[in-house]
From TrEMBL:
Start and end residues of each PH domain: 210-306
UniProt gene name: Swap70
Native source species: Cisticola juncidis
Coiled-coil segments on the chain, per record: 316-537
The EF-hand domain, residue ranges: 7-42
The protein's role, per its UniProt record: Phosphatidylinositol 3,4,5-trisphosphate-dependent guanine nucleotide exchange factor (GEF) which, independently of RAS, transduces signals from tyrosine kinase receptors to RAC. It also mediates signaling of membrane ruffling. Regulates the actin cytoskeleton as an effector or adapter protein in response to agonist stimulated phosphatidylinositol (3,4)-bisphosphate production and cell protrusion.
Name of the protein described by the UniProt record: Switch-associated protein 70
Main location: membrane
Classification via Pfam families: EF-hand_SWAP70_N, PH
Keywords carried by this UniProt record: Cell membrane, Cell projection, Coiled coil, Cytoplasm, DNA-binding, Membrane, Nucleus, Phosphoprotein
Subunit structure: The SWAP complex consists of NPM1, NCL, PARP1 and SWAP70.
GO cellular component labels: cytoplasm; lamellipodium; nucleus; plasma membrane
Database matches in SMART domains: PH (SM00233)
InterPro entries assigned: EF-hand-dom_pair (IPR011992), EF-hand_SWAP70_N (IPR057836), EF_hand_dom (IPR002048), PH-like_dom_sf (IPR011993), PH_domain (IPR001849), PH_SWAP70 (IPR057837)
Cited PROSITE patterns: EF_HAND_2, PH_DOMAIN
Amino acid sequence: MVGLKEELLKSIWHAFTALDLDRSGKVSKEHLKVLSHNLCTVLNVPHDPVALEEHFRDDDEGPVSNHGYMPYLNKFILEKVQGNFDKVEFNRMCWTLCAKKNLSKSPLLLSDEDAFKVWVIFNFLSEDKYPLIIVPEEIEYLLKKITEAMGAGWQQEQFNHYKIALNTSREGLSAWELIDLIGSGQFSKGMDRQTVSMAINEVFNELILDVLKQGYMLKKGHKRKNWMERWFVLKPNIISYYVSEDLKDKKGDIILDGNCCVEALPDKDGKKCLFLIKCLDKTFEISASDKKKKQEWIQAIQTTVNLLRAGSPPPHKEARQKRKELRQKLLAEQEELDRQMKELQAANENKQKELETVRKQLEAAAARAAEEEKKRLQTQVELQDRFSLELEREKMVRQKMEQQVAQKSSELEQYLQRVRELEEMYKQLEEALEDEKQARQDEETVRKLQARLLEEETAKRAELEKWHLQQQQTIQMTEAEKQELENQRMMKEQALQVAMQQLKQLELERKEALEQYEEVKKKLETAANNTKSWKDKVAHHEGLIRLIEPGSKNPHLITNWGPAAFTEAELEERQRSWKGKKATSE
């Protein structure tokens, strides 16, 4: 009943949408009453005027619209439909209400009856959603059926072009657009109007009237046993036979069920192409016009019985259901694919956003790295410049120090040369002193003085040797030690200057002492001549001697050979000791 209700609603929808609207934009109550009354009449449903008046009472709660009409239609009309009505008559009533308003005025190859049949076929093949349309797949199916019924070849390529153009603009066609398409002759070129009408009628009989097969055959009577030509019409559960194909004089029915069977019979009694239909209560002998017709009828009847046994619907309805299920499956798969695509697109957008964020972070990091690299390079350049300046400065300092070291080394070499010369002179001085010591034996004071001078000179020589050793060690010192030695040398030079000042003072004192010892000089003239040569050398190198002699802050006595090695008190003490020894010896 659900399928029947859906088929009825499609035709009613066409009739309802064709009704005129009032000024408020709603269908008037009178039109709905007329529609309801007509529906009840053609569907054999008892009419209830009271329920109709109650449903459409004159107040704000009475919905005079399609949404308000549907509850009444379902409750009081469609739910009471039993199926004992003429489908063609029902569809013709709905067609009468909507055709005049919607049918194209342009000339078509179709008659009004053919247009009506195409409209009914549209309701059968259209989708179960409103507004009603027929999808391209069902359009192709219908056009193929009509083309086959006309005995023409199907133009698949032409339809593919039409399908592509249709898909780009809309999902499908309305009933009136389908009538215009078939009536335009676009897919039936070369066929006359009668051929197209016969093809539409054949498809209408199959799809709407459930006519599986029809044609003339001979039937054997049950009482008179004579053979009469009849027009047979095979439907899913019955075979009806008429006097002629106009279906006006019906002669009987053969009720089919799962217990029926069909068998081929051999030729007999001058009749050929015989077959037998066995039912529970009767058996029917039928003769086809030829073997091909016989085989077609046997196969069609057997297929119908098999469908009854399996409880399956007619082939065209089963095929329509399969096509719908396939489209629904494809639509579900497409919706799922669209959903997945949206999810993938959303995920892709999220990934793009994440990548964009990461890219920005990388760009920021790269910018920071570039800035840091720039700073590092700038710092490196500055450090290199600074190191270059410091290296240049150190190089100049090193060159200066090397020059100073070379100068100090040269000075040290000169100093050592002078020390060697002094040592040589010292040896010669010792020889001269030995000669002078021999000459001074007559004068004890002079001898003592000479001895003191020798002791003093010995001490100086020891000190000079000590300084000589220190100078040799100084040569092996590092640059820091050389600097310290230089400082010591400067101190010694300062001390030498002080000693030279003292020497000048001693020179004065020596001059006085020379005057006092003038007599002694005369006695020692011979010794003086012997020591004249080394005295000149000593006078020539007096500066060197002073260089290595430490000065004294106390006044010293001066001899002919320089400052004395003892003080005046010591000299007096030694003179007394010498005089005492001399007195004792006398």
